[in-house]
Amino acid sequence: MKGSSFYNATASFQWKQRDSMALQLLSDGSIPAFLNRFVAIHTSIKNEKGRTVKATYYVTPDYLSIGINEDWARVPLTPQTAQLIANRYNCFLPTRKMVNDIYEQAHVKLEPVPMFAFRDSTVTMWQHHLMIEGQRKGRKGLIAGIKKDVVISPKINTTGKNDRVAIYGWHKTNGQAIQPLYTGHVNWYVDYSHGIRLVYQTIWVNGKAMNYKDVLNNPFLKGLLCDEDQCDYFSY
């Protein structure tokens, strides 16, 4: 299905209907081909001896979208649906630190475009996508600063309410994130500003392949991917 066709079909949908249709389409591979070309992100930390440990992981060049290269659209999703898609493609959702690293290494950085009316409506989601594309003016490459990322964060487990979504990002061109790490929304809430960035599960640490969970579970290596005190939240 083309991106414009998806938004035409779901114009009157509430979140459950929209998520259900998006899940089916994305699971079946209705994804623009350019999103299949993951981009390398490089990061490093120093150990107690001052030696540098380097890591590389791979992310989609843009937020999860439905369509074909000639007609596609970014689609905000609930974290539950986003996780099912991530699992389908052997991926996971980023942490706050990873969102910052992706922004720093992005080729296309755009000023956020806030919208204030009908924030959770399907029509507003489509309009926001079109506004971003107007800003982008056809520039290619890893893009960032255009959405609040749905992220994984142990903060979800410390709020006393585990039915929450964690969001972070929407960087201004000065590098400052408009949205601090936030878990105030219930996990079925999604609006036009949310974006789903997929990260491939294999992390290359000093050339060695590791699963992201093993990296996050390691007391030292977790610093490659996570900047929180605890990093033991892996999926929704």
Please explain how this structure is put together.
- The chain has about 240 residues and is an alpha+beta fold.
- About 30% of the residues lie in helices and about 25% in strands.
- The chain has seven helices and 14 strands.
- The chain has helices at about 5-10, 15-25, 80-90, 95-105, 120-135, 155-160, 210-215; strands spanning about 40-45, 50-60, 65-70, 70-75, 90, 110, 145, 150, 165-170, 175-180, 195, 200, 200-205, 210.
- Strands 1-2-13-14 form a four-stranded antiparallel β-sheet. Strands 10-9-8-11 form a four-stranded mixed β-sheet, covered by helices on one side. The protein has a two-stranded antiparallel sheet with strand order 3-4.
- A hairpin with a 2-residue loop joins strand 13 (about 200-205) and strand 14.
- Helix 2 runs parallel beside helix 3 (about 80-90).
